[in-house]
């Protein structure tokens, strides 16, 4: 892995993967939904859409055609703390990908007519999410933990906030959060670090951005920032559906917490696959649900631990009891050596196999730079291997002591 800081504070990270004929390029900006005010809800996601609508050098069709005509692919994603734009292409097309993505991010027109057109597209996207009970439950779960705060609100905003978002709000978000000191460029595959740096440098010389105002990157999002919380505890929503969706859990570890590897092993044992406890106890032994799993998510200063199941409405209480019961069993030391070995093996294989494609490696570089902590693949595997039974017992005990949140989306009575 190589890392450089270009004039203006742009950070470039690359990883050469020998034997490949492709590469994935990513442009990251550390702005997401938690950087919005209540009135701006969904503006970061709105802005992500608009950067595909044309620049002073390329039309929206030009941007789409650039990747289609070489058999590549390009997309973007907005999260709670970052937005990233990426493309996967053959190595011969890397210069085009870097130039096109950089043009999008640095020289978008943000025209009013495009804003109005895309507003309808985003409203349809939100409507599609509303038609997915599992997604509704996930949003309700965040609301149960964090309430009506930046972390608790949906990344895409609400239909009301999207309709109310003005061109001035979007342009203000762009001018305040997009710029050379905040830009992170990552690339993995058949790439040359020096060549990528030269491509980015050249592309930004021809952009709208002024790189003379600073030579160092902006500070990273602090992990000591105060997380706004408005704990609700429980959120229930009725829907015209057949199956109930339940999530239980609560606030959890931040991104750079030293216990993150332990949490990864814990959630794998609880609900990381067909041999996991939740799958075996809830589905295989009792037939109470088709899908069930455990997960954890992390942000710069906080995180989420959760367990999910989709079940018949009359089974909600029993399923919830089983979920927390499995955490209690782990806290009491009910864990065999073979179960621990199996979970570690599953994670080791997942980490290694997940790094077989350039997109995963590119994303890993971006997340590492955002958090300020890079761990090699060998290091990640070693951290997983070092997790012991006592670590898991303690963390499971900690999970039992968090403020428990619950979200349920169930059929209307």
Task: Report on this structure.
With 413 residues, the chain is α+β, with helices and mostly antiparallel strands. The chain has two domains: 2-205, Metalloenzyme, LuxS/M16 peptidase-like (Cytochrome Bc1 Complex, Chain A, domain 1); 234-411, Cytochrome Bc1 Complex, Chain A, domain 1 (2-Layer Sandwich). 45% of the residues lie in helices and 19% in strands. The protein has helices at residues 43-50, 60-68, 94-107, 112-130, 133-146, 159-164, 167-177, 193-205, 260-271, 277-285, 316-331, 337-354, 358-371, 377-385, 389-401, and strands at residues 2-5, 11-16, 22-29, 73-78, 83-90, 184-189, 234-239, 244-251, 289-298, 303-311, 405-411. Strand 1 (2-5) and strand 2 form a beta hairpin. Helix 11 (316-331) crosses helix 15 (389-401). The longest helix has 19 residues, at 112-130. 42% of the residues are buried.
List the helices and strands and how they pair.
Elements: E1 2-5, E2 11-16, E3 22-29, H1 43-50, H2 60-68, E4 73-78, E5 83-90, H3 94-107, H4 112-130, H5 133-146, H6 159-164, H7 167-177, E6 184-189, H8 193-205, E7 234-239, E8 244-251, H9 260-271, H10 277-285, E9 289-298, E10 303-311, H11 316-331, H12 337-354, H13 358-371, H14 377-385, H15 389-401, E11 405-411
Parallel strand pairs: 2-6, 7-11
Antiparallel strand pairs: 1-2, 3-5, 3-6, 4-5, 8-10, 8-11, 9-10
Helix pairs in contact: 1-7, 3-8, 9-12, 9-15, 10-11, 11-15, 12-14
């Amino acid at each position: 892995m190589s890392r450089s800081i270009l004039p203006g504070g742009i950070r470039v990270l690359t990883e050469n993967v020998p034997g490949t004929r492709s590469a994935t390029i990513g442009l990251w900006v550390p702005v997401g939904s938690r950087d919005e005010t209540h009135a701006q809800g969904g503006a970061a996601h709105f802005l992500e859409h608009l950067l595909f609508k044309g620049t002073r050098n390329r039309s929206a069709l030009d941007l789409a055609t650039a990747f289609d005509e070489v058999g590549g692919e390009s997309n973007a994603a907005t999260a709670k703390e970052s937005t990233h734009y990426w493309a996967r292409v053959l190595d011969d097309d890397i210069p085009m990908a870097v130039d096109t993505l950089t043009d999008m991010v640095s020289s978008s027109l943000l025209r009013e007519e495009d804003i109005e057109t895309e507003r309808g597209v985003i409203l349809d996207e939100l409507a599609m999410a509303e038609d997915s009970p599992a997604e509704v439950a996930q949003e309700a779960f965040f609301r149960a933990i964090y309430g009506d705060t930046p972390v608790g609100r949906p990344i895409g905003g609400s239909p009301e906030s999207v309709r109310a978002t003005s061109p001035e709000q979007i342009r203000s978000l762009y001018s305040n959060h997009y710029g050379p000191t905040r830009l992170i460029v990552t690339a993995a595959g058949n790439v040359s670090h020096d060549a990528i740096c030269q491509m980015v440098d050249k592309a930004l010389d021809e952009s709208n951005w002024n790189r003379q105002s600073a030579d160092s990157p902006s500070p990273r999002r602090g992990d000591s920032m105060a997380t706004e919380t408005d704990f609700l505890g429980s959120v229930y929503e009725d829907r015209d559906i057949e199956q109930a969706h339940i999530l239980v859990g609560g606030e959890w570890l931040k991104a750079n917490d030293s216990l993150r590897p332990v949490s990864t092993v814990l959630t794998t044992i609880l609900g990381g696959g067909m041999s996991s406890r939740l799958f075996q106890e809830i589905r295989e032994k009792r037939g109470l649900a088709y899908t069930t799993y455990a997960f954890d998510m992390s942000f710069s200063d906080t995180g989420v631990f959760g367990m999910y199941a989709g079940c018949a409405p009359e089974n909600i209480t029993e399923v919830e009891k089983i979920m927390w019961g499995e955490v209690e069993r782990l806290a009491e030391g009910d864990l065999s050596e073979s179960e621990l070995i199996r979970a570690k093996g599953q994670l080791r294989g997942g980490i290694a196999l997940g790094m077989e494609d350039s997109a995963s490696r590119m994303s890993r570089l971006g997340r590492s730079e955002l958090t300020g902590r890079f761990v090699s693949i060998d290091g990640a595997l070693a951290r997983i291997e070092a997790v012991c039974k006592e670590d898991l017992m303690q963390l499971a005990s900690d999970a039992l002591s968090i403020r428990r949140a619950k979200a349920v989306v169930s059929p209307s009575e």
